[in-house]
Specification:
Glyco_trans_1, six-stranded parallel sheet, Rossmann fold, globular, 24 helices, transferase, Glyco_trans_4-like_N, glycosyltransferase, eight-stranded mixed sheet, alpha/beta
Length: about 600
């Protein structure tokens, strides 16, 4: 085991932010862990003098590297190599990382806060060393949690990490939800904080491409990243477009397999491998490409896809947990298409062709602006700094602008979900008014910040619904059951069951033919009066109210009556939501 001298971490750590990470850019791997560096840089305005401790897991037969400390790219970095066999079990990896950090435990305990990237191996190692001697916040990026949880030893270690850390953040909502469901006793200290992105670092090309001939891949060259499927998909595209090219940026154990497959499929001359590219140069690759194709099996966030979109480059990616949420706005605006995880190439070709056909109607600038709001360096750093210092995390201010989306018809639900989603991402308060609102929130995976008003109980209390239930169901079924003794005495006990079935059919038919159209006319006005009155405090003073379908219009207009300045529209896109929320915030 190679250790740094204790003097490398001494009293100068006191009252500073210390970042402990298993991934960080090095001379041999300039892109590895770049997101950790960017996250730490983003925090400089909040923690001006952080120390980064890079516990690099290295193969035993790799060239020996001594521990060292110095200023790298403007950050104070301690590089601490941890040699081990590549097949070392994950639990043992965590123990070896802990042992490497052990000589510096006392110094680390004097930090203002220790920000640890990933729960295993580094999160457990730090928690085991420091206990409650200082504040420890763990940020989870890993896509391999299920593998950790499948082994009793590593699962127990991970559970201890989550429970003993002061706070746990995850870069994606799916990971947050998985952690909350796995550890419900501490669910309230698990929050979503995405990776930050310096959008201004990525400059769009001068002319948007019309034909998506120049494919690009940026990332590790691993089968788990879908690189072999990428080559097969490109070969199929190249067969249709002989001038097409594929540029592959990155390194990894499957690089030779990619080259061999490209040669086997006859596209070796059209595929260029440029190796690992430093983050400062990756923007040029995006500007020189027409489409990024990234077919990873699993992603918690998908940084390269976000970087590409910041460069206004269309993206085809897999529908991983991270991709579904990170790229949702890009899909709406014609800048991204998601394909199923798997081996197929036809869906990849169809996705590229669809993006190509939609280029004229796509709004890349709106996607870029959305990325700046959701993942921009400043907004994410502010949320993460609050998390590190123990302030409330990612909750809208009580006086934030309010957006209300009414969805009283099934066709209005998708649009309402987009409106409230976009509103909370911009720091607004948002309310969804719908039948089964709580169930819809789960089905649509809405942010926890969206408040809900369920109109189902109100609808059931309306006189028209109570009369229908009484006349069509309660009274007839009571009378039929009362006739049971007479039927049995006459030797026809089955007559009661037959009558109940007939009554049920007639009731269902009446509701379908007469009741439903009748309720469609009566309910909107009645619901508007009751819901607006009973939920007055929750929906007071909105800047925007949407109604989606004619059934929701009376309620939307009644909600807006007390707010003459509110905008009331059937549907609202991202641009309108953004302008109204920003305008209301600046006015206040």
């Amino acid at each position: 085991m190679v250790h740094a001298e204790p003097a490398l971490i001494a009293s100068d750590v006191r009252d500073r932010l210390v970042v402990v990470t298993p991934w960080y850019p090095t001379a041999s791997n300039p892109y590895g862990g770049a997101f950790v560096r960017e996250t730490t840089r983003a925090l400089l305005s909040h923690f001006p003098d952080p120390l980064v401790v890079h516990t690099e897991v290295r193969a035993l037969d790799a060239e020996p590297v001594a521990a060292s400390r110095g200023v790298v790219d403007g950050l104070d970095v301690l590089h601490l190599p941890v040699p081990m066999d590549p097949l070392t079990p994950r639990a043992r990896v965590a123990e070896l990382v802990r042992d490497a950090l052990a000589p510096y435990a006392q110094a680390l305990a004097e930090a203002e806060v220790v920000h640890v990237h990933v729960g295993m191996p580094t999160g457990w190692a730090v928690v085991d060393l420091l206990g409650d001697r200082t504040r420890v916040v763990v940020s989870e990026h890993a896509s391999y949690l299920n593998k950790l949880w499948a082994l009793p030893e590593s699962e127990a270690m991970y559970a201890r990490t989550v429970r003993e850390a002061a706070l746990v953040t995850a870069v994606g909502q799916d990971t947050t939800r998985a952690l909350q469901q796995r550890y419900p006793d501490v669910a309230d200290k698990v929050h979503t904080v995405p990776n930050p992105l310096d959008v201004e670092r990525f400059v769009p090309g001068d002319v948007p491409p019309t034909n998506l001939h120049r494919w690009l891949y940026v990332g590790n060259l691993l089968e788990a990243k879908g690189v072999l499927r990428l080559v097969r998909a490109f070969a199929a595209w190249h067969e249709q477009r002989p001038t097409a090219t594929l540029t592959v940026a990155g390194g990894g154990v499957d690089a030779d397999r990619m080259r061999a497959l490209a040669a086997e499929l006859g596209v070796a001359d059209a595929v260029t491998f440029v190796g690992r590219v430093a983050p400062a140069q990756v923007g040029e690759l995006y500007r020189d490409a027409d489409v990024l194709v990234h077919l990873s099996v699993a992603e918690t966030f998908g940084l390269t896809a976000v970087e590409a979109l910041a460069s206004e480059l269309p993206v085809v990616a897999t529908a991983t947990r991270g991709g579904v949420r990170t790229l949702d706005v890009a899909q709406d605006e014609g800048m991204a298409r998601l394909v199923p995880v798997g081996d197929g190439v036809d869906d990849v070709i169809a996705a590229v062709r669809d993006l190509e056909e939609r280029r004229a109607s796509a709004r890349p600038w709106l996607v870029r602006d959305d990325l700046a709001v959701r993942f921009g360096t400043g907004p994410v750093a502010a949320v993460l700094a609050d998390a590190l210092r123990g302030a409330p995390v990612d909750e809208p201010a009580p006086d934030a602008p309010l957006v209300v989306a009414v969805a009283l018809h099934g066709s209005a639900v998708p649009g309402a979900a987009r409106v409230v989603r976009d509103a909370v991402r911009r720091g607004a308060r948002a309310v969804l008014v719908a039948d089964r609102a709580d169930e819809l929130a789960d089905e649509l995976d809405l942010d926890h910040r969206v408040q809900r008003v369920d109109v189902s109980p109100v609808r059931a209390r309306l006189l028209s619904h109570r009369m229908e239930k009484w006349v069509l169901d309660a009274v007839p079924r009571t009378l039929i059951r009362a006739a049971g003794p007479v039927a049995r005495a006459a030797g026809r006990p089955q007559a009661v069951d037959a009558a109940l079935r007939r009554q049920q059919r007639l009731s269902a038919r009446w509701k379908q033919v007469v009741g439903r159209p009748g309720h469609a006319r009566i309910d909107p006005g009645a619901l508007a009066r009751v819901v607006a009155r009973e939920s007055a405090a929750l929906v007071a003073d909105p800047v925007l109210v949407t109604w989606g379908h004619a059934q929701g219009r009376p309620l939307a207009e009644r909600i807006a009556q007390r707010s003459p300045g509110a905008t009331v529209v059937q549907d609202a896109d991202l641009d309108l939501v953004s302008r109204l929320v920003a305008g209301a915030r600046s006015a206040r």
